[in-house]
Design brief:
The protein has 158 residues and is of the alpha/beta class. It has a single domain, classed as 3-Layer(aba) Sandwich (Rossmann fold), CATH 3.40.50. The protein is 37% helix and 20% strand. It has helices at residues 30-35, 44-55, 71-80, 99-111, 124-132, 148-155, and strands at residues 4-7, 14-15, 41-42, 59-67, 87-91, 116-121, 137-139. The longest helix has 13 residues, at 99-111. The protein is globular and about 45 Å long. The termini are far apart. The relative contact order is 0.23.
Length: 158
């Protein structure tokens, strides 16, 4: 069968609840929010789905709104928690566009390489945008957070 299974990280694989308070007030503390990601626990549902994807013969890729400057931390975290190896697609350091735009662009680039079987994301706006673009999406609802992260991502980084 083959193809991609594309996973968001924050809220799908990484439990970000311990760092959401950095985004609840203005100015939002994005740098601290991202720096603290190395302390995230892995979310069991996302972890299991990533490994099931590999068992089904899919190629795992990661698409995140984290800035490129956190690539090493993010890659180290993926390895440390035991997630499958896969290409990591990150937001350019100064790209402040909403995730619903950047993630559709990443999905289209990946689709040009291999068929995308499904993408996994927790952000309602991203899920809607990806579905509107014709992609199969699994809506990750297992973290159960307040909309703090999604609202902050939509508004861009201050």
């Amino acid at each position: 069968m083959g193809g991609y299974a594309v996973f968001d990280i924050d809220g799908v694989l990484a439990d970000v609840r311990h760092r959401l308070h950095y985004l609840e007030r203005r100015p939002r503390r994005w740098e601290t929010f991202f720096r603290m990601a190395v302390r995230d626990d892995v979310l069991a549902d996302g972890y299991e789905l990533a490994h099931e994807s590999v068992a089904q013969g899919l190629t795992v890729a990661y698409s995140t709104g984290r800035p490129e400057r956190y690539r090493a931390d993010t890659q180290d975290w993926l390895i440390r928690v035991g997630l499958p190896a896969g290409d990591l697609h990150m937001r350019a350091d100064h790209d402040r566009r909403p995730a619903r735009i950047t993630k559709v662009q990443v999905a289209r680039r990946l689709q040009a390489q291999l068929p995308i079987r499904y993408l996994v994301d927790d952000d309602d706006r991203v899920v809607e945008a990806l579905r509107s673009a014709g992609f199969e999406v699994i809506h990750a609802t297992w973290m159960h957070t307040a909309p703090t992260l999604h609202q902050a991502q939509e508004e861009g980084r201050s």
